[in-house]
# Entry
Amino acid sequence: MARKTRSSRSRTSPSASAMHQSQTRGVGLESTVHTMLTQLGEDPTRHGLQDTPKRVAKALTFLTSGYQQDIDELLNGALFPIDYDEMVIVKDIDFFSLCEHHMLPFFGKCHVGYIPRKHVVGLSKIPRLVDAFSRRLQVQERLTVQIAKTLQEKLNPHGVGVVLEARHLCMSMRGVEKQNTIAVTSEMQGVFRKQQQTREEFLKLIR
# Structure
């Protein structure tokens, strides 16, 4: 009696599907940039601009790669049980993002602190979390809140504090044209919000 064989029908893996979607987005972005150059009065076929649509599409795909980042996957396996209840701070984290209003960059430093309850997160995961949320179309205020709330939800610490300091090119290159202006935002969760002493300790340590 002949043995039944499994269907040899090919299935598209999630990674292959994601790659196809990325390639499709890239082609669409290239076409959009080509049209934009034309609308600006440029010639997309001239030597200096021939590869510009492809370069811009690649850059935008990287600068918005946070949309494809799974936060649970990012933190999975990086939470460690520990008997430690003092403040943990990772400061001066460089970040770059795109303002959702003008799609111009804003960039600066992010400072993160938390007081563990039962677990700590691998130190490298905090900058990676900052990247995951900053590599999107953003406003600084929302970016600050997203980082703090995610750490509060995933770690369940006694509290979290996040401070962002950033320069916005939409303020430097256009509009008010103030080149030396720095925007500062903060989000305090748990004891960082409720206890002034904790908040002041955090703010002192990140200076």
About this structure: DSSP finds eight helices and seven strands in the chain.
